[in-house]
Design a protein that fits this description.
The protein is an alpha+beta fold. It is 45% helix and 25% strand. It contains eight helices and twelve strands. The strands form three sheets. A four-stranded antiparallel β-sheet has the order 1-8-3-6. Helix 5 packs antiparallel against helix 8 and helix 6 packs across helix 7. The longest helix has 27 residues. The chain starts with a helix and ends with a helix.
């Protein structure tokens, strides 16, 4: 019984940190703890694959998750890399039928999961939660549409510069050389996100470094010249 109580306290403590549950009372948070489940997923494992049932919503407690899909010619396209505190699988709320994407653990990842049915009941009782989820899905859709537009109309160096600008804005921190991107990301991850090959992406990154626009530090990218990076994004 003590273990169950400690697990519930752990879930509630984590769920309180999610913005979408801001404003919930203590009793409502405890109710959330009762209908969520904690899971640990090893790096490289999949939460779901295309054609799997769309029956769960996921909240990242710790780690990173990659959302991707296959193009018509079988090439992997990375749609998003999500961090601690983010939600995924939310499209199950509006799309009928099975999953259309992959969700893969990029690190050893801890998550909370909730069934689609329980989440829908939660939304019925807390209409403000519906607004937050609708906004989240709208932002995700805009990001995907923007990425598709870049793939169609921008060459690789421009796509790379735009991607680094977004990362710097979302995950940047002050550094003695400029702005350090906190997210550790491989050249292959970047290539998948900008629709390129690893070799071409590495060459473009090295070119930006040679021009003094970026630098590298232990798998982190440092943006040294925001203005020059903005010019490269045009």
């Amino acid at each position: 019984m003590d273990e169950e109580r400690l697990e519930l306290q752990s879930k509630v403590w984590y769920l309180k940190k999610l913005n979408i549950f801001a404003g919930f009372s203590e009793a409502e948070m405890n109710g959330l703890g009762q209908i969520t489940h904690m899971e640990s997923v090893p790096r490289g494992s999949y939460f779901y694959l295309p054609k799997d049932p769309s029956d769960r919503i996921y909240f990242i407690k710790e780690g990173r998750v990659k959302i991707s899909k296959l193009s018509d010619d079988g090439k992997e396209i990375t749609l998003a890399i999500l961090e601690t505190g983010e939600v995924f699988g939310e499209m199950a709320l509006v799309e009928e039928g099975p999953r259309k994407t992959f969700a893969e653990a990029l690190d050893d990842t801890s998550i909370c999961t909730m069934s689609k049915n329980n989440f829908e009941t939660l939304i019925e009782n807390k209409p403000e939660l519906s607004v937050k989820i609708t906004k989240l899905m709208g932002l995700r859709r805009l990001e995907i549409e923007s990425r598709v537009e870049e793939l169609l109309f921008c060459h690789v160096p421009s796509r790379l510069a735009r991607f680094l600008m977004r990362l710097g804005g979302e995950h940047g921190e002050d550094h003695r050389l400029g702005r350090r991107i906190k997210v550790k990301i491989t050249h292959q991850d970047i290539a998948n996100l900008i629709g390129s090959t690893r070799e071409t992406t590495t060459a473009a990154l090295n070119s930006l470094k040679k021009d003094g626009i970026i630098d590298f530090e232990r798998r982190h990218i440092i943006i040294k010249d925001d203005v020059a990076l903005g010019e490269a994004a045009k």
